[in-house]
Amino acid sequence: MEPRITCFLTAGNPDDLLITLKQLEETALTGKTYLFGKLDNPGFELPRKAIKLDILSMMTNASVKKMAQLADTEYMLIYTKTLPLRLGEYALQRMLQVADDTRAGMVYSDYFELKGGQAVPSPVIDYQQGSLRDDFNFGSVLVYRTSEVRKAAARVTGEYQFAGLYDLRLKVSEKNRLMRIPEFLYTEMETDSRRSGQRIFDYVDPRNRQMQIEMERVCTGHLKSIGGWLKPEFARVDLRQGDFPVEASVIIPVRNRVKTIKDAVNSVLSQKTRYPFNLIIVDNHSSDGTTEVLKKYSEKDKRLIHVIPDREDLGIGGCWNAGVFHPGCGRFAIQLDSDDLYIDDDVLQNIVDEFYRQDCAMIVGTYRMVDFNLNDVPPGLIDHREWTPDNGRNNALRINGLGAPRAFFTPVLREIRFPNVSYGEDYAVGLHISRFYQIGRIYDPLYLCRRWEENTDASLDINKLNSHNTYKDRIRTIELLARINLNKES
């Protein structure tokens, strides 16, 4: 049988590498295997079909071009880990069968993760047009159609040290399906044992800044190629329009946060402003004593409006809508989560001042990560420097959130409204606003973001995490299609 797959791996421990090489060679589908990186034992003798390359990383765009040049088979396999790979029975045959049948540009599959000696199912999710995150989880085994890799490599411009495979994936996706096979076709070893609540902030870690700049360049080029990029031209907003009972309202949706709601309320009511403000708390039928705490506060301080919705089917987004459309809502609606608190007593005044100074429909601030006792935790200050005036609205389609605290010009928010969900609702409305309006930024820390065991995203199982990621990708898909259509009409 003629080989149909050229393989590309990263070298590492020779014993681990031998296990992977043996797995690949036993299928009879593979031809040559090329190795990037350094062998831990330079004197190690490689098997006959394995060829060591003098290139350290497969993540560069130069490496992608090299792979396109070296592959002499219809398909190419890229394995992105150095730990041993264990293929399921007929796994590569199945991947090629699906690739042949669908003419996909790339196929990937569900897999098992080896944790503590146990093979744990790790399903992935389907790729969408809006799956623009550079950290989209395909698993570690990617099978590309070589002809499409060559076309993509021919279009590579610039030099990337980190974003080569990301660039390849986006370029291939422009004309081809990236096809998920919902079958557990291989086993890989888990290398990141952190909980979901720790991993979600990797993309804003200052240590990864150079990588993020590259990823932004790649995503921006992709958006331009498919007609989804927006120029830094924004609709004007008349911040003086309308009559409101107060200048600003802090809105807190809450459900069962008796441990933290007092801190949140006190941080709002202690604010010092030159204008009247209030606090609208939408209490989503709490059952742990939160409701009783809020009733006492509202009796003492009329600035606190305690709302218990008639409906019982509201998510966080629905609660936000209840607050925004409340007749007591002010000209600006300012976010505070029920876990968190403002960093000092000038936050509201600073936010409103910046609305008028920056002439924008939404403001995103900066926050510090802290534990329950307000001690700093890594990565510390989260300032979302990737949100730039000229390209933030485009880069927002790549990143996983827009930052906090968020504040909105109420008439615009009433027009768009939040989706009635409890995850990604803020991201959805922020993307929609950024399609038309400038989003302003405040880089001084305004907000202490508590990370503790009762955060909704602190420790998600794989199915819940996949559900969240699928929804955010759907939000991106909707927004991307809207922007493509907007460009066609202009």
Summarize the structure.
The protein has helices at residues 14-25, 61-70, 91-102, 146-154, 164-173, 196-199, 209-226, 261-269, 290-300, 316-324, 347-358, 392-395, 410-416, 425-436, 462-489; strands spanning 5-10, 30-36, 50-52, 75-79, 86-87, 106-115, 118-122, 141-145, 178-189, 248-254, 277-283, 304-307, 332-335, 341-342, 362-370, 376-382, 406-409, 439-450. With 490 residues, it is α/β, with parallel strands linked by helices. Helix content is 34%, strand content 23%.
Present the secondary structure layout.
Layout: E1 5-10, H1 14-25, E2 30-36, E3 50-52, H2 61-70, E4 75-79, E5 86-87, H3 91-102, E6 106-115, E7 118-122, E8 141-145, H4 146-154, H5 164-173, E9 178-189, H6 196-199, H7 209-226, E10 248-254, H8 261-269, E11 277-283, H9 290-300, E12 304-307, H10 316-324, E13 332-335, E14 341-342, H11 347-358, E15 362-370, E16 376-382, H12 392-395, E17 406-409, H13 410-416, H14 425-436, E18 439-450, H15 462-489
Parallel strand pairs: 1-2, 1-4, 2-3, 6-9, 10-11, 10-13, 11-12, 15-18
Antiparallel strand pairs: 4-8, 5-9, 6-7, 6-8, 13-17, 14-18, 15-16, 15-17
Helix pairs in contact: 2-4, 2-5, 4-5, 5-7, 14-15
